[in-house]
Amino acid sequence: AVLFVIIAQNIFDDYTVRILNNIAIFIILATSYNLINGVTGQFSLEPNGFVAIGAYVTALALLSEDMKWELFQLEDPSPLILALNLDLIPALLLSGFIAVLVALSLSYPVFRVRGDYLAIVTLGFGFIIKVFAINSPQFTNGAIGLNEIPSIINLYWTGGIAIITVIAILNIVYSKYGRAMKAVRDDEDAASAIGINTMKIKTYSFSTSAFFEGIGGGLLAILLTTISPDLFQFFLTFQLLIIIVLGGLG
């Protein structure tokens, strides 16, 4: 995979490399989504929300202060947004960590329910993030969105992070935490009866998934160079759901 990434970046034309970048980003998103939905067996429909968080945080971190003043038309940008100015790696990590914080804050109310109810609650979270993006122009520039995001991306970044994500998720799946996640998936009551803290395991899986989805969202923003709330509708989650179902849940 590493050899392919190196060769592809230097051999293929720009169009093919862009498609490969897209594939790599969706590998990151689908692999991380599979951890909560497939391995842990929690029917969660939240990825579009975490991808949106990652995309907006990365975009705002990479845009210069002058560019923010130029882009924000509905309201003046918040001082917090103006102060946010980072390089690519810190911006991606910040995107992931903010997604984790949101996931941790959601975990307790979300995992008080199971099955279809869990799907409905997490689906609602995705809609809330979109509504927040539209109605908070001082943070996100509202429905207009953000453009002229620096396109500092190549296959080394997307392919490299995709490889790291797959290795990290595999190591989790084959660890004691991964075995606990599978136990929760197969029979949550039995897992709880033998001493597994099911709430802790589900929260760990949820927040790990959110971290990589946030990073994937950041990469998507710099690949597209323009984002808006309409980009992060439920259809994005549906695409990822199709990928992990066809690939084999868990």
Structural commentary:
The chain has 13 helices and no strands. The protein is an all-alpha fold and 250 residues long. Helix 2 (14-39) runs parallel beside helix 9 (155-173) and helix 6 runs antiparallel to helix 12. The longest helix is centred in the C-terminal third of the chain and has 27 residues, at 198-224. The two termini are 22 Å apart.
Structural class: mainly alpha
Helix content: over 70%
User: What order do the helices and strands follow?
Assistant: HHHHHHHHHHHHH
Uncertain spans, ≥5 residues at pLDDT below 50? none
Strand content: under 5%
Number of strands: 0
Largest sheet: none
Please state the average pLDDT score: 93
Globally, the shape reads: globular
Total count of helical runs of at least 4 residues? 13
Distance separating the two termini: 22 Å
Rounded to the nearest angstrom, the radius of gyration is 18 Å
Structure summarized in a few sentences:
This protein has helices at residues 2-11, 14-39, 47-62, 65-71, 79-83, 88-110, 115-135, 137-140, 155-173, 176-186, 188-193, 198-224, 234-247. With 250 residues, it is an all-alpha fold.
